[in-house]
Structures are given as structure tokens and as C-alpha cells.
Amino acid sequence: MSKPYSEDLRVRLIAAVEQEGVSRREAGRRFRVSASSSVRWLAEHSQSAAPGRGRWAVTGGRCLRPNATGLRRWSRRRTI
To answer: What is 7-79's CATH number?
Structure first.
């Protein structure tokens, strides 16, 4: 499995798009990342305003909500 890109790279790519007016795809070419990565990073940045944080920094347990009932039952069984 490959390593994730550094947060510094994400910040520099976002800065190039926002400050220099470079297109998302051109920024991807410049920093040698895929166009889809640069487009996704900019989309995540526009939603969160925290560069590089991405979908793994989401708080609130979104991934647990659909399974909340099952998890509660499981934890009750474990404590009894």
C-alpha cells in the first residue's frame, strides 16, 4: 500500500490554485499528483476550510450512526 501524500504538499497545491490562479488539473501536474487527487483536495478544502484534513478528520462518528443500534446491543451484551 502506498503512503499518503504529505499535508505540506496539499497546502502548497491549494495555495497554487487559490493564490496563483492555476487550474486544479494544472496544479496536479505541477506537483505530480493525479488530477482527481487535486480536484478532491480542493473540494474538501472548500467544504472544511482546513487544508489537508480531508475525510478522515470528520468528527461526530458518521460511520457509526447507521450501526448505532447494533453497537448498543453489542456493548450491552459485553457488559452483562
So the answer is: 1.10.10
